[in-house]
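Request:
You are asked to prepare a plain-text protein record giving the amino acid sequence and the backbone structure tokens, at your earliest convenience.
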Amino acid sequence: MVARRIGAERQPIAIVDGFHPDPAALRTAALSARFAPGRHHYPGVRAALPPDYFVAVRPALTAVLAGVFGHRGGVSLLDASFSIVTTPPAQLSVTQRLPHIDATDPRRIALVHYLGEGDGTAFFRHRATGFETIDTARAAGYLAALNDELRRDGDPPPAYIADSTPLFERTALVAAQPNRAVIYRSSLLHSGAIAPGAALGDDPARGRLTVTAFLMLE
């Protein structure tokens, strides 16, 4: 487990290699899973996880939440699934071309577990406001500033955001490695760092297969 503090706000993230004790079994399960279009702006497809997934990763996850986030209380699972990015850059919505947050609540934790080679996860600072996390106090001001910029400059080009742009500075990049997980607060501005020309098929054996999950610290 590697703990890092990223950006000017020094927010913690954890990078855990060897996250699941049997990643080959997970990849096999994904081959027979039934994928469907993702919700909440996810640019791809999702499928249900094996029911014992969190039993298998509980030791590593418990160590991360205590050691990196200082949390030793209860944890609620909000959502978890196999995920594959499939949307071609030309079909991305404006929202999907920008860094995003998953929630403003600092108790919300996001987990991305990479199951193959490919693109990782990037974290960003909004240049105009200096914000790297968006909580409830910042949300209205951040959205107002971002919308003003988009009206002034036009929509960003049809591409996944993987590096710095005129509006956003990349503060950190976690490279994908098989059976590596990255865990961070959902309020951090982030994006899948999907490179131009990346393979975006929906085949779990060849696509950007991950587990994505969202937790609430109690």
Summary: Residues 2-108+116-178+190-217 form one domain.
